[in-house]
Design goal:
heterodimer; A: mainly beta; six-stranded mixed beta sheet; 45% strand; globular; B: mainly beta; seven-stranded mixed beta sheet; four-stranded antiparallel beta sheet; 11 strands; 0% helix
Chain lengths: 111, 119
């Protein structure tokens, strides 16, 4: 069971801005950086954002990440049809055992 | 070009053993972590564990500790995920991932290996 909570779904029309939240705790988001992954239908996930707000080479600047306290957000500006995918936040958790945890995932639909 | 190429789909019976593989190329295999991620049908991502091939340091998620074994053979740049006795609930897609940094994020993903366990 994931300790990072995301809304199950989000949607918007082309060109709109969509924001996805990720809620954690002091042992994960509160003390470690957050990463975001995008999974297009039928494909392997890919890294979208790392270290809270860094984009790997090739990721459009329409995608941005932020973190505050024990929560993080992913924003998609200028939503496009090809952004329809599942999005997962993730972070290391420093509770009893150190391990990596993914969020529950958010399905983004472009209307 | 960095690539992680995984072994092909498997169909097994409950109680059987299995070892799937992930071959890294295009980078220094011993300088990055290799991890495994499970995705059950229609479900989200679950982190299973990682190994640092340089020194074989291995870490497991509490959910998978004792259930699987992660290993690596740096001589052939290949990591493995192994089960000694499969269950139907192990049916899933398994991805290998490359981890970068001290608290690694996973910047490259394999294509996935589908494991089906059915009697």
């Amino acid at each position: 069971q994931s300790v990072l909570t995301q809304p199950p779904s989000a949607s918007g029309t082309p060109g709109q801005r969509v924001t996805i939240s990720c809620s954690g705790s002091s042992s994960n988001i509160g003390s470690n950086t957050v990463n975001w992954y995008q999974q297009l239908p039928g494909t392997a996930p890919k890294l979208l954002i790392y270290s809270n707000n860094q984009r790997p080479s090739g990721v459009p600047d329409r995608f941005s990440g932020s973190k505050s306290g024990t929560s993080a957000s992913l924003a998609i500006s200028g939503l496009q049809s090809e952004d329809e995918a599942d999005y997962y936040c993730a972070a290391w958790d420093d509770s009893l055992n150190v391990y990596y945890v993914f969020g529950t995932g958010t399905k983004v639909t472009v209307l | 070009e960095v690539q992680l190429v995984q072994s092909g789909a498997e169909v097994k019976k409950p109680g059987e053993s299995l070892k799937i593989s992930c071959k890294g190329s295009g980078y220094s295999f011993t300088s990055y972590w290799i991890g495994w991620v499970r995705q059950m049908p229609g479900k989200g991502l679950e982190w299973m564990g990682i190994i640092y091939p340089g020194d074989s340091d291995t870490r497991y998620s509490p959910s998978f500790q004792g259930q699987v074994t992660i290993s690596a053979d740096k001589s052939i740049s290949t990591a493995y995920l192994q089960w000694s006795s499969l269950k139907a609930s192990d049916t899933a897609m398994y991805y290998c991932v490359r981890g970068d940094g001290d608290s690694p994020f996973f910047d490259y993903w394999g294509q996935g290996t589908l494991v089906t366990v059915s009697s």
